[in-house]
């Protein structure tokens, strides 16, 4: 038998009982969710900065980083809403490497999903309690959502998951914004069809239940660049790419709340992390010169941590990514303040 059962994972209800959201934290999330939703519906002209480590590998460093974000948020709150990236699930291109805190609460030890579920829920709750900022995470496994449904303010569906039926249908039952990334091929129609699925009502099976979803009108696009047939990065953050997306929304006219988040890293930067500030500024420039672009671009994603770059697991540098290289704190703070000036 090729599949070996290790241990039964506790239910979402059991994990939530161990690490509950206190009423005052639930109130913070409700207020944040309402403010973020207004950006996607067009009721607010604030800009979203979905920013943080490629992977949240260490609670102390992550909370330190988000506490720094919270101080900057106070300075730019009139123009920008910061949504910290607390990414605890990491898709890997060939399946190998660190898959996030859900898999390994300690990156130097063996996988342990039960302890991982406890660790990620605790970290998210501690972050809200200490900073007042509710976060974004990637939905690598659709079965994860019940464990995080009362915590997250933003969900991303990755380039390798965006065509998966389970992810699309689960997104249709989520009540916060869900971003659908373009696939690694770069095909806009795949992303748009995923948004249609996310915004539609469905009946499906999940976590051992037959369920019905209401559809999520805040399902939207994320542009993250692509790969050509030779495996070379092809960006899609330029003015022409944004106009193409605007035109695609006109063709897919049943979609509500046309919106886009632009990922400044991954194939848009060719994983050259230090290019992210330049890319963000070009996006803002395009918004200033086109009403069409400014209507659909609601924010950017930036991979950022305390220290520049990346390191191998076990290297021991505090606040430095162990997955994709990230923008360090000094450059991050400068970028956020410059963004506010340019908006």
Structure in words:
The chain has 343 residues and is of the alpha/beta class. It has a single domain (12-342), classed as TIM Barrel, CATH 3.20.20. The protein has eleven helices and twelve strands. The chain has helices at 12-18, 23-41, 59-76, 113-131, 145-148, 165-171, 188-199, 239-251, 276-288, 291-296, 329-342, and strands at 47-52, 80-84, 136-138, 154-157, 178-181, 202-206, 209-213, 219-223, 226-227, 233-234, 260-263, 297-303. The protein has an eight-stranded parallel β-sheet, with helices on both faces. A hairpin with a 5-residue loop joins strand 9 (226-227) and strand 10 (233-234). The protein starts with 11 loop residues before the first helix and ends with a helix. The mean pLDDT is 95.
Estimated structural class? alpha/beta
Q: What gyration radius follows from the Cα positions, in whole Å? A: 19 Å
Low-confidence stretches: none
Order of helices and strands: HHEHEHEHEHEHEEEEEHEHHEH
As for the number of domains, it is 1
The CATH homologous superfamily is called Aldolase class I
What's the CATH topology name? TIM Barrel
Continuous helix count = 11
- The proportion of residues forming helix, as a percent range, comes to 25-40%
N- to C-terminal distance: 58 Å
Strand content: 15-25%
Shape summary: globular
Q: How would the blueprint of this fold be written?
A:
Elements: H1 12-18, H2 23-41, E1 47-52, H3 59-76, E2 80-84, H4 113-131, E3 136-138, H5 145-148, E4 154-157, H6 165-171, E5 178-181, H7 188-199, E6 202-206, E7 209-213, E8 219-223, E9 226-227, E10 233-234, H8 239-251, E11 260-263, H9 276-288, H10 291-296, E12 297-303, H11 329-342
Parallel strand pairs: 1-2, 1-12, 3-4, 4-5, 5-8, 8-11, 11-12
Antiparallel strand pairs: 6-7, 9-10
Helix pairs in contact: 3-4, 3-11, 6-7, 9-11
